[in-house]
Amino acid sequence: MPDDLPDLYFRVRENGAAVFRIDPEHRARRIDLEHIATVNLRSGDVRAQGDRVLSPDDLAAIRDWVAERTELLARRDMDDIFRSIETLNLTAQWAQTRASDEQLDAVTDALLLAMHDLRSVLVRKQSERLGGDED
Fold first, then answer.
1. Are 11 and 63 within 8 A, CB to CB?
2. Is residue 135 domain-resident?
3. Separation of alpha carbons 66 and 69, rounded Å
4. CB under 8 Å, gap of 24 or more: what pairs does 55-61 form?
5. How many structural domains comprise the chain?
6. Which of 14, 19, 20, 64 is the most buried (most CB within 10 A)?
7. pTM above 0.85, yes or no
8. Does residue 123 lie within any of the structural domains?
9. Angle CA(86)–CA(91)–CA(97) in degrees, nearest 5?
10. Averaged pLDDT score across all residues of the chain
11. For 106-121, how does the pLDDT look when each residue is reduced to its tens digit (9 = 90+)?
12. What is the tens place of the pLDDT at every residue in 53-100?
């Protein structure tokens, strides 16, 4: 098993990761994780832990992880949006065919406000993309 392990392990956090070096040769015959750095995806900062100096190989592996993670999160964002579209369609079908008056009373105002807000943002962004906001 130790031969199958990567050199670094990335513990995903809210906005990045804690980076650990994997030491499979620990004296107790267990895997040891040594915290070597922290990565912030928004700012792109990589901070070495303590007085540690990261090697060029460490920095390259971290940069590769950041690129892969950023791409994965972008794909997930788009997937979430397509799921939202599907949810809106299912909500329309529910409202038309199965919702009781009480259920509609409970959700109508919140749905209308959310849809109005979304529509406003989409119309403004589309106008900007089409060059209609050139004052």
1. no
2. no
3. 5
4. 57/7, 58/8, 58/19, 58/21, 61/7, 61/8
5. 2
6. 19
7. no
8. yes
9. 125
10. 92
11. 999 999 999 999 999 9
12. 999 999 999 999 999 999 999 999 999 999 999 999 999 999 999 999
